[in-house]
Amino acid sequence: MPKTVRFIGAFFSTIVDAIIIFLLLLSRLNLILSACFAMMEDKVEVKDVTEQFSSSQQSDSLLQWTNWQLIDSILPTGGFAHSLGLEAAMQARIVSHPEDLQSYIIHTLENTGSLLLPFVYSAATSPDFQTWQQLDMILDATLTNEVSRKASVSQGSALMRVSSSVFTEIPSLKMMRNLSLSNGDVHFHHAPVFGLVCGLVGMDSETCQKAYMFITMRDIISAATRLNLVGPLGAAVLQHQVSFVAEELLKKWKNRGVDEACQTSPLLDTVQGCHSYLFSRLFCS
């Protein structure tokens, strides 16, 4: 009998020890599984953050390509068909030397900054149909000569047509263009169209305004080269020199509303208005 009791006691003791060991192993296994799940969650979170960062980087990179395309001379908007009054100023003997040319470019850039940048800025910060339509109407009433008005409409129409065909990921561009053409109540002036396109593609307002100043400077210097006022190398040097002044003019006139739009060089505007009276001319304006 005592042997049986001892055997039963030893048996139960062994079972209890086994249960304790099992519970300890189960607890350890639970800790290991918890750690594994935590590591998996961390990896998922890191992966999500990495994917978001990569997506953001990709978006920024694509935006840079779009920025460059909008200011590229290969974009068929008709900018090189216009001299911004330089041809008329040359025939009127206002510009006859490289020194005169530099002064003319600076005054034209200031005129652009004071008169047109407010329309670019307003359209870029509110790229919707109603704002664009209103800005277009205001600018049409603001421009004082028929030559600059026609040039603005011509380039703006071309830019809107090209943008709606190129940037197919923004269907609102094509919708706005088609609606405007069907209604016939929009003139497609260049400055509001440029701001609208820049705003819709995601360009910030300051870059948009700087780009508009750049294409203005680019078109004048290109016209000067074809008018034999300056050679290709001299044009490149001149563009670099004027860029410092252009930056200061941008700081002076950027981020203004259309109620502050004004002419700073009315003489240049008058000269451009005489372009249609030239007997022989190379440019449209």
Automatic annotation (TrEMBL):
One Pfam entry name: UreF
GO molecular function: nickel cation binding
Keywords, alphabetical: Chaperone, Membrane, Nickel insertion, Transmembrane, Transmembrane helix
Superkingdom as given in the UniProt entry: Eukaryota
Membrane-spanning segments: 7-26
InterPro entries hit by this protein: UreF (IPR002639), UreF_sf (IPR038277)
Family statement: Belongs to the UreF family.
Protein known as: Urease accessory protein F
Organism the protein comes from: Tagetes erecta (African marigold)
